[in-house]
Amino acid sequence: MDLRALESRFQTLETPFYYYDLDVLHETLAAVKGAIADAPYMHVHYAIKANSNPKLLEIIANNGLGADCVSGGEISAALSAGFPASKVVFAGVGKNDKEILNGLTSEIACFNVESLPELMRINELAATIGKTARVAFRINPNVDAGTHAKITTGLNENKFGISLDDTIDAVKHARQLPNIELCGLHFHIGSQILNFVVFENLCKRVNDLQDTLEKAGVFVKSINMGGGLGIDYQNPKDHPIPPFTEYFGIFKKHLCLRPEQELHFELGRSVVGQWKFDCSYFVCKTGENEKIRDSGCWVYRPYSSCNVWCPSLYRKLNSFIG
Predict the structure, then answer these.
(1) Are the C-beta atoms of 237 and 21 separated by less than 8 Å?
(2) What mean pLDDT, rounded, does the chain reach?
(3) In contact, 257 and 263? CB cutoff 8 Å
(4) Looking at the predicted structure, is the pLDDT value of residue 321 above 80?
(5) In angstroms, rounded to a whole number, what is the distance separating the alpha carbons of residues 90 and 186?
(6) In sequence order, what are the residues at sequence separation of 6 or more whose Cβ sits closer than 8 angstroms to the Cβ of residue 67?
(7) Distance between CA 138 and CA 227 in Å, rounded?
(8) What pLDDT does residue 50 have?
(9) Binning pLDDT at 50, 70 and 90, where does residue 279 land?
(10) What are the residues facing 252 on neighbouring strands?
């Protein structure tokens, strides 16, 4: 998309604002669905934390994707936008009682459980309202995502998930709880992953774990591989659609599913990151003809840090079109 061609339309709008190219969104969603059309056992959930604009959620829901939520508010937003509860999964390390009850009463598809204390609390709350909670254990596979340290989530040193060594004990514990139905295993090792060897390594680790569980007589209905597929920040116009066919192809080739197992994914930025632009006018520019602390040129925009926090926290590239 050529933003310069839209400049005349933007002249009358108060800045800052977000501009969404819905044509690219529809092309992206078509690419996602096309890449898994030959694999009916594959299911994609959109990670709402990537962008929770209600109109965009409606479009994504209408295209048949599920929703990956990390708060009670996101569950409500997903249901309001038209995502069926049967396609909503609830992740996150800090689920509170109200959020858990929201998920239970809404009869969402699955809770991605991070720890045994969380599992026990879900069981207790489910018992109070006569519900059975469907859960998947989030397992920390100790796979290096090779991405920024602040968005790496699949190593032993990270706070997320149950360790591989504790998986069988966790499964045995879940089977003893009357209001818990263990339906799957969940993995998510990080974000903005561009090296597909990382996903191959994750597949190998999941295969090894499934072999171990099978020897212990454990079978789960679903495997959730999380998300993490990155996008091209350097040349977004050249690559507006992420390589979904290659991405899903990694799992088709390297992941050894058991008969009748379902495979789930939770994609966020790869669905929405390529077609949203934040637009504003520069309010001043300094340093063109002078040195400022040997740093070169400074450009100022009327934004607060909460609007553009990714560059400062994650060293994300933030391109400007002047």
Answers:
(1) no
(2) 85
(3) yes
(4) no
(5) 11
(6) 45, 46, 48, 57, 61, 74, 75, 78, 83, 87, 88, 89
(7) 13
(8) 93
(9) low
(10) none
The torsion angles phi and psi of 237, rounded to 5 degrees, stand at: -70, -30
**Are 273 and 314 spatial neighbours (Cβ–Cβ below 8 Å)?**
no
Residue where the block lists tokens 């495997």: 223
Percentage with pLDDT > 70 across the chain = 77
Q: Cis before residue 40, ω within 30 degrees of 0?
A: no
Q: How far apart are CA 223 and CA 206, in angstroms?
A: 9
Give pLDDT tens digits for 47-85: 999 999 999 999 999 999 999 999 999 999 999 999 999
Encoded tokens for 179: 């209001």
Retrieve residue 166's tokens. 């504790």
CA Rg value for the chain: 21
Residue with tokens 């006018």: 281
Q: Which two tokens stand for residue 292?
A: 């400022």
Give the pLDDT confidence score for residue 303 in this predicted structure: 46
Residues forming beta bridges with residue 162, ordered by sequence position: 139
Per-residue pLDDT reduced to its tens digit, 149-201: 554 554 554 556 798 899 999 999 999 999 999 999 999 888 888 999 999 99
Q: Which two tokens stand for residue 265?
A: 């994914």
- 295 pLDDT higher than 80: no
